Amino acid sequence: QLQLQESGPGLVKPSETLSLICTVSGDSITISDYYWVWVRQPPGKGLEWIGSINYSGKTYYTASLKSRVTMSVDTAKNQFSLQLTSVIAADTALYYCARLKVGGTGNLFDHWGQGTLVSVSS
Amino acid sequence: EIVLTQSPGTLSLSPGERATLSCRASQTLSNNYLAWYQQRPGQAPRLLIHGASSRATGIPDRFSGSGSATDFTLTISRLEPEDFAMYYCQFYGTFGQGTKVEIK
């Protein structure tokens, strides 16, 4: 059964870099039908897609964060990661990693991690 | 950029009642590739419906999706206690703002 698990610091200082890793188990990250994504949810608010990456490193980022986001993939460890630079208080959120199934009936977020809360505060 | 607008913001209903949630797109959605997700408190979202009307694996048949072009609906035929949650529609990288289904 596919599982995703986020890991990383729960507290980041303003202007510093947020770094998270998602470890995938139960299936290979190299399957071509899927992208691997980060989605965030500020406390009490809705869902925001941050970006997607496939096994070969092809990336897509949401326009509003594109200048600050970098995603990478490590196929040997079956992991992918997120870096968000120059964080501000508005970046405080629950960060989810998820699998994105492409093609078929659209792009579907079909498996999710449990999420990790990242707070931006000095 | 496509914007998805969900209504109502909150739906107050009793167990056993029918819930009807709306998602309206700012442009016609190609191939009706709209999906719905449920998010219970403290949990990650869960895929319910894809392609506007196809239930995801393991989703009970009281959940159904319909609609096309710019207007889509998620219907829960008879609310169970575990159905009181947030619901989001999604098209590619865009999510609606959500509808909360709460106990009346």
Please provide a brief summary of the model.
The complex is a heterodimer of chains A (122) and B (104). Chain A is an all-beta fold and 122 residues long.
Describe this structure in words.
The complex is a heterodimer of chains A (122) and B (104). By secondary structure, chain A is mainly β. Helix content of chain A is 0%, strand content 52%. Chain A contains no helices and eleven strands. Chain A has strands at 3-7, 11-12, 18-25, 34-41, 48-53, 59-61, 69-74, 79-84, 93-101, 108-112, 116-120. In chain A, the strands form two sheets. In chain A, strands 2, 4, 5, 6, 9, 10 and 11 form a seven-stranded mixed β-sheet that branches. In chain A, strands 1-3-8-7 form a four-stranded antiparallel β-sheet, with no helix packed on it. The relative contact order of chain A is 0.32. The mean pLDDT of chain A is 96. The termini of chain B are far apart. Chain B has no helices and eleven strands. In chain B, strand 9 and strand 10 form a beta hairpin. Chain B is mainly β. In chain B, strands 2, 4, 5, 6, 9, 10 and 11 form a seven-stranded mixed β-sheet that branches. Helix content of chain B is 0%, strand content 50%. The model of chain B has no long low-confidence stretch (mean pLDDT 96). Chain B has strands at residues 4-7, 10-13, 19-25, 35-39, 46-50, 54-55, 63-68, 71-76, 86-91, 94-95, 99-103. The interface between A and B is medium-sized, with 21 and 25 residues.
